[in-house]
Specification:
Organism: Actinacidiphila guanduensis
Order of helices and strands: EEHEEEHEHEHHEHHHHHHHHHHHHHH
Structural class: alpha/beta
CATH topology of the largest domain: Nucleotidyltransferase, domain 5
Strand content: 5-15%
Region (Disordered): 1-20
Strand order of the largest sheet: 2-5-4-3-6-7
CATH architecture of the largest domain: 2-Layer Sandwich
Helix content: 40-55%
Oligomer: single chain
Number of strands: 8
Domain HRDC: 231-311
Radius of gyration: 25 Å
GO molecular function: 3'-5' exonuclease activity; nucleic acid binding; nucleotide binding
Protein name: Ribonuclease D
Number of domains: 3
Number of helices: 19
CATH superfamily of the largest domain: Ribonuclease H-like superfamily/Ribonuclease H
Shape: flat
Distance between the termini: 46 Å
Length: 415
C-alpha cells in the first residue's frame, strides 16, 4: 500500500474547458419508440454506463427526476424525459448486468428507483474521491483535478421541470455524463495504487444492495428553527402548520418552502396568533398572502390549540440510541472516557490513511459501541459488534483493534 497521506495525483495544469459533448447534444427522448431505440442501443453498448438525474429541488414537490442522462460506449449519450416516459423499467432491465457510474449515487438512486431503474453494481465517483483523499469531491472539481477538463456548472440549480428544456441546459446535462466513465477509470487506478480499491468496492456494493429509503418518522421535526420552540403546545402548532403546508405543496406540486417558509412556521408557533388578523401581522404572512391562505394557516393553528394535552407532540423525537455526547461525562463517565479514546484513535488513523473520519467509520457507530460496549471487549467480539452495526469488512479490519483498546479506557481520577 502506498503512502495514503500523499495527495491523490492531480491532472496536469491549465485545465481545458469542455464546451460541447463529443457527438453534440442528443434529442430528448420523449416517446415510446424513441425510448425503445435508446433501450436497444444501450443494451448493445459495452462497458460501464454513466447515469445522472436532474431534479427540481426548491421548485417542485418531492425529489422526482425531470431528466435522466446516460452514456455508454457504443451507444453514445441519451437524454430522457421521465415526465413523458415515466416507466424506465425496460431500460433498467437492459442494464441490469452493467456497472452504473454515478456521482453521489445516494442522491440520484431514490428518484431512479421511482422510474424502475436500479443497479446491481455501481461505481460512485464522489465516494471514490473521498476514499482517495481528494479535498474537493464535487463533479466539476473531480473532472478538473483528475482529467484536466473544466465543466460548466451554471445550470445546476435551475428548474428542471421547465418544458421545453433550453438548449444550454441540455448541453450542461449531457456534459455531466460525458466524462463520468473516464473519471471512474482514473479513480479506480488511483484507488488501486493507494491500496484502497477493495474498500471502495465494498462501499459500492453496500450502496447497491441498500433498500430504498424508508419514509422519515415525524418529518416535520426537521423544520429549521424548531429548536427555538420549547412548549408542547407551540410544537403542536409547528406540526399542524407543517402538515397543512405539506398537503398544499403536494396538491400544487410546489416546493413546500415556496408555499410557506420554515421561519414563518416557527414565528407563528411562538406567537400563537388568535385570529387571521393577528396572523397577517407576522413576518411571512404579510399583505401579499391571500385571505384563503391565511385562513388555512389559522385553521392549523386553531387545531393545535384545541388538542388535548395527551395528543400534543413530545419536545424530542423518540430515540433508541445513546444520549448526546455532551451529556456523557455526567451520565456515564466511563462511557465518556471510551468515546474520547475512540474518537482520538479514529481521527489519527483517518489522517494517516488520508480519508474522512466518517468514511473510516460512522460517528454513530462509534457512539453506539462506546455507550453500550460488549461485556468482553476482545477483538473478535468487537469486530462482530461493529459488523452488526453496519460496518463493512474493511472498516472492521482497520477499526476493531482501535475500538478494542478504546473500550478498555477508564475515566481519569482526580487526586
Amino acid at each position: 500500500m502506498t503512502d495514503a497521506r500523499e495527495t491523490a495525483t492531480p491532472a496536469p495544469s491549465a485545465p481545458v474547458p469542455l464546451l460541447d459533448p463529443r457527438e453534440g447534444i442528443p434529442p430528448v427522448t420523449a416517446g415510446p419508440q424513441a425510448l425503445a431505440d435508446v433501450v436497444a442501443a444501450f443494451a448493445a453498448g459495452s462497458g460501464p454506463v454513466a447515469v445522472d438525474a436532474e431534479r427540481a429541488s426548491g421548485y417542485r414537490y418531492g425529489q422526482r427526476a425531470y431528466l435522466v442522462q446516460l452514456r455508454r460506449a457504443g451507444a453514445g449519450t441519451a437524454l430522457i424525459d421521465p415526465i413523458a416516459c415515466p416507466d424506465l423499467s425496460a431500460l433498467g432491465e437492459a442494464l441490469a448486468d452493467t456497472e452504473w457510474v454515478l456521482h453521489a449515487a445516494t442522491q440520484d438512486l431514490p428518484c431512479l428507483f421511482e422510474l424502475g431503474m436500479r443497479p446491481t453494481s455501481l461505481f460512485d465517483t464522489e465516494l471514490a474521491g473521498r476514499l482517495a483523499g481528494f479535498a474537493r469531491v464535487g463533479l466539476g472539481a473531480m473532472v478538473e483535478n483528475v482529467l484536466g477538463f473544466v465543466l460548466e456548472k451554471g445550470h445546476s440549480a435551475v428548474d428542471w421541470s421547465t418544458r421545453p428544456l433550453p438548449e444550454p441546459w441540455l448541453r450542461y446535462a449531457a456534459l455531466d455524463v460525458e466524462l463520468l466513465v473516464d473519471l471512474r477509470d482514473a479513480l479506480e487506478a488511483e484507488l488501486r495504487e493507494q491500496g484502497k480499491l477493495e474498500w471502495a468496492l465494498q462501499e459500492f456494493a453496500a450502496i447497491a444492495a441498500a433498500p430504498p429509503p424508508a419514509p422519515r418518522v415525524d418529518p416535520w421535526r426537521r423544520t429549521s428553527g424548531l429548536h427555538k420552540v420549547r412548549r408542547r403546545r407551540q410544537i403542536g402548532i409547528v406540526r399542524e402548520l407543517w402538515l397543512a403546508r405539506d398537503q398544499a405543496a403536494r396538491e400544487r406540486d410546489v416546493s413546500p418552502g415556496r408555499v410557506l417558509t420554515d421561519a414563518a412556521i416557527v414565528t407563528a408557533a411562538l406567537e400563537s396568533p388568535p385570529n387571521v388578523h393577528a396572523l397577517a401581522a407576522l413576518p411571512g404572512f404579510g399583505h401579499r398572502m391571500g385571505r384563503r391562505q391565511l385562513e388555512l394557516w389559522q385553521a392549523a393553528i386553531d387545531r393545535a390549540r384545541a388538542l388535548p394535552e395527551r395528543e400534543l407532540p413530545q419536545p424530542a423525537a423518540a430515540y433508541t440510541g445513546p444520549p448526546p455526547p455532551r451529556a456523557w461525562a455526567d451520565k456515564d463517565p466511563a462511557a465518556a472516557a471510551r468515546l474520547s479514546a475512540a474518537r482520538a484513535a479514529v481521527s489519527a488513523l483517518a489522517e494517516e490513511l488520508n480519508l474522512p473520519q466518517e468514511n473510516l467509520i460512522t460517528p454513530d457507530t462509534v457512539r453506539r459501541i462506546c455507550w453500550a460496549p460488549p461485556t468482553d471487549p476482545n477483538p473478535e467480539v468487537v469486530a462482530s459488534t461493529l459488523t452488526s452495526l453496519g460496518a463493512r469488512p474493511w472498516q472492521v479490519a482497520l477499526v476493531a483493534p482501535l475500538m478494542t483498546t478504546a473500550l478498555r479506557a477508564r475515566p481519569a481520577t482526580s487526586e
